[in-house]
């Protein structure tokens, strides 16, 4: 369909953008970049196209060039949380955690500037003006699809989770959504989790805990928060605690591949190789092109002494990693102009 749109409107930057996005998702990186560059010739300051170009450059291992592009884009769009999020990950990759931490803290200050007035206002949410300066979309697109939509149905979701998650259920018993647009609060949750990830990379566990607690106070029923708790326990080599956190995350969202990947790895460290293989194969069914899943599966198969299968899994991981961007392509926000 995108090819047809480009044929009908070859000078429409949006047609080029969506075709480039679809090509990127299926792994045609070079062809995707060609259409994205044509789109930028047609509309040089289109933020979503610039965002996609940055990810395409990282898929080609041009991280320094990608960082330059995102920094230039932020000069034009200084309050774009999407671009700042990518910048933080690029800085972590290229310049270290301290630099990335500065950007993440700036994101928190920007959130206050953009949304704090809305969250303390008594005006009904439906009467508030939509702030379109930032369309910050999460790196997995999962928070907006799963968590924010479930906010309105948190009682129903909690009843499901209470059957398996005593920790979450106890938190939910006193939970009530914060005033103001729930989307704005979910953005803050993701910023806290980014900060937690960066502190984890800097080996500052106390700060990790503080960030997780801040996120939990906003919305405890989040598989992303459970996932981050699991990473925290993995960092401390607390395998039973990590296992429980990832199990909780998967109970909330069975499609969360990152939690399945880590749960499989924890099973591996606990010597539960059969469970590890089953869990990782489930992750591979959901996202067959995810190289981390195949790498973890290779380690498990090696432990099971299935060396040929392990070799094949590792080879698949290497092949898929070649076109792997620093953040998923579907994290780029949808746009209509």
UniProtKB/TrEMBL annotation:
InterPro entries: Endocytosis_PI4K-reg_protein, TPR-like_helical_dom_sf, TPR_rpt. Involved in endocytosis. Belongs to the YPP1 family. Gene3D superfamilies: Tetratricopeptide repeat domain. It comes from Anoplophora glabripennis (Asian longhorn beetle). Signal peptide: none annotated. GO terms for biological process: phosphatidylinositol phosphate biosynthetic process; protein localization to plasma membrane. It comes from the Eukaryota. This is Tetratricopeptide repeat protein. GO terms for cellular component: plasma membrane. PANTHER family: TETRATRICOPEPTIDE REPEAT DOMAIN 7, ISOFORM A, TETRATRICOPEPTIDE REPEAT PROTEIN, TPR.
């Amino acid at each position: 369909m995108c090819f047809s749109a480009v044929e009908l409107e070859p000078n429409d930057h949006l047609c080029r953008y969506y075709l480039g996005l679809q090509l990127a998702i299926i792994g045609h990186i070079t062809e995707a970049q060609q259409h994205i560059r044509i789109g930028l010739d047609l509309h040089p300051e289109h933020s979503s196209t610039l965002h996609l170009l940055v990810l395409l450059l990282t898929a080609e291992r041009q991280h320094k060039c990608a960082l330059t592009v995102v920094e230039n884009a932020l000069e034009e769009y200084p309050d774009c949380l999407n671009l700042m999020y990518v910048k933080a990950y690029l800085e972590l990759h290229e310049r270290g955690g301290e630099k990335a931490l500065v950007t993440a803290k700036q994101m928190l200050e920007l959130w206050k500037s953009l949304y704090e007035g809305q969250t303390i206002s008594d005006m009904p949410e439906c009467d508030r003006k939509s702030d379109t300066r930032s369309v910050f979309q999460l790196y997995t697109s999962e928070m907006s699809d799963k968590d924010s939509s479930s906010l309105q149905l948190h009682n129903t979701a909690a009843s499901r989770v209470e059957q398996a998650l005593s920790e979450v259920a106890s938190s939910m018993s006193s939970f009530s959504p914060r005033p103001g647009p729930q989307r704005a609060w979910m953005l803050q949750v993701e910023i806290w989790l980014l900060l937690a990830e960066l502190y984890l990379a800097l080996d500052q566990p106390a700060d990790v805990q503080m960030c997780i607690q801040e996120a939990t106070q906003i919305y405890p029923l989040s598989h992303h928060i459970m996932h981050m708790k699991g990473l925290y326990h993995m960092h401390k080599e607390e395998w039973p605690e990590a296992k429980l956190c990832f199990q909780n995350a998967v109970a909330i969202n069975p499609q969360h591949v990152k939690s399945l990947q880590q749960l499989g790895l924890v099973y591996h460290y606990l010597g539960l190789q059969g469970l590890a293989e089953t869990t990782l194969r489930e992750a591979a069914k959901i996202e067959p092109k995810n190289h981390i899943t195949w790498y973890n599966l290779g380690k498990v198969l090696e432990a099971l002494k299935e060396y040929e299968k392990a070799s094949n899994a590792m080879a698949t991981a290497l092949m898929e990693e070649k076109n792997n961007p620093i953040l998923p392509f579907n994290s780029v926000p949808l746009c209509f102009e």
